[in-house]
Each structure stands twice: as C-alpha cells, then as structure tokens.
Write a structure and sequence with these properties.
Elements lengths: L2 E8 L2 E8 L11 E2 L3 E5 L5 E4 L2 H7 E6 L6 E5 L2 E4 L2 E4 L4 E5 L6 E8 L5 E8 L2 E10 L2 E7 L8 E8 L5 E13 L2 E11 L3 E7 L8 E6 L3 E11 L8
Antiparallel strand pairs: 1-2, 2-3, 2-4, 4-5, 6-20, 7-10, 8-9, 9-20, 10-19, 11-16, 11-20, 12-13, 12-19, 13-14, 14-15, 16-17, 17-18
Length: 238
C-alpha cells in the first residue's frame, strides 16, 4: 500500500518515501506519508529497507505494558506466557493482552516452528487485522490484511525469502488516522529482520483504540516482546 515511492539522499544515506492510499480498498493515493525507511545494500548484494537508529529512538515513547502471565489471556489454542515471551503449542493460538491502545510500536522475535502463519493481530469493533508472516511452499511472505473482509482480505503482501526460514525479528507500527477529529482508519508498517518493510492502509477504526493479540495457527514462540507507545506529532522530537 505504498504508492509512487521515491528514494532521496539525506546525510549520505538513502531513504524511501511514498504515500499511503486515502481509502484502504481504493487505488486513490496521496493521503498519508509512510514512515521513512532507509534503503541500504545487504551482505548478499540485494537492497534492503529498515527503520534506522534515529527513527527508532524517535518513535519509541516508552513501554505501555509488559507481557506476563497476569496480563495475557489465552482466548483459543494453548500457550504459556511470562517475562516478555509466549510459547504456543496448540492450534489457532491467541494471546490477548489486557490493554487498550491506539498508536503503538511493538517489537518481538518469532520462531514459527510448525506454524504456517504467525504474527501480530489488532482487534477493534468486531474487526481483526493481521500483520503476519505467511510460509508457503515457494517462500515466506509478509502480509497485512483482514480475513473477515471478503472484498479485501489482503491489504498488502511482499516476498521475504526461502520457505526454510523460521526465525524472524519483527517490528509493527500501528497508527490511527485522524479524520474530522476522530481516529478512524489505520496505517501499519511491518518491519522484518531489518531487511524489508511492508506498509498497509487498513480499515481498522481506532476511535476507541484496539486490543493487541499475538497469534499463530500452530506451534510458535514469541520472545523479547515489547509494547510501546508510538510518538505523535506533538512529542516526536521531544
């Protein structure tokens, strides 16, 4: 969901900028700028994109909650929680946090193990949007979408690498969009392994915030989980 992106040199580095669509399921663009992503040459000679060190410091405004057995509910499947980690051993495993948030910066490491789909879920007003890794026979993909939306189940998707990959370091930025004084609609940036970024413009109504959920279809481990407040325009440079 990143339209007409272009690369600009800033301070000896290169950054990609573009526009998020005004409406999640239409091709019109020019609504919202994405977070700037650094473009760099990876060790294998391919180009990669990532959130650079300065942007990471600016967007992270501190911990909103810790992931412990006390503030995680297993709403389906089977899991154990504690000390910023989740060990999932059932099917359709859902770890729901006791938190209502709006704009967040979430980080975690993921071992997909037996799962073919796993990642971060945002729930609000009966809708469920996902920023997940999807493993198929031809490779692993980043995907942002809403399985409940039959007309637009996948908002955006990009190829990451070989299907044998199981270990991933992830960052998910979720930011509600202001319309007429109300948070309505959301932009998502999904970063994996500091090598690729996927942008998604979704129809999640954030007027009353959302509930964070970690999810996997089969066995998977989440470690090093942090759920942080995302900086806003009024304090991003404080």
């Amino acid at each position: 969901d990143l339209c007409v992106p272009q690369i600009e040199e800033i301070g000896g580095r290169f950054y990609m900028w573009g526009w998020m669509p005004q409406t999640y399921n239409r091709s019109d663009w020019g609504g919202y700028k994405n977070l700037p992503r650094q473009v760099y040459v990876r060790e294998d000679g391919l180009l990669g994109t990532r959130l650079d060190e300065m942007a990471t410091r600016l967007v992270n405004r501190g911990r909103l909650t810790d992931v412990t057995a006390e503030n995680v509910s297993c709403t389906s499947g089977s899991l154990q929680a504690g000390n910023g980690s989740l060990s999932m051993t059932g099917t359709d495993n859902r770890a729901q946090l006791a938190l209502t948030a709006d704009s967040t910066y979430v980080t975690f490491s993921l071992d997909m193990k037996d799962s073919t789909q796993a990642g971060f879920v945002m729930q609000a007003n009966g809708s469920e949007y996902r920023a997940i890794l999807v493993r198929r026979s031809d490779g692993v993909y980043l995907q942002i979408g809403c399985p409940q939306d039959s007309s637009h189940p996948v908002s955006s998707e990009v190829y990451l690498g070989d299907a044998s990959m199981t270990q991933f370091d992830c960052k998910v930025v979720t930011d509600g969009v202001w319309r007429r004084g109300v948070r309505n609609g959301t932009n998502v940036e999904f970063y994996v392994n500091d090598t690729i970024v996927l942008s998604g413009r979704i129809n999640l109504n954030m007027e009353n915030g959302y509930t964070p959920v970690f999810w996997s279809d089969k066995a998977a481990d989440f470690t090093g989980i942090t759920v942080n407040r995302l900086a806003q325009r009024y304090d991003v440079y404080d």
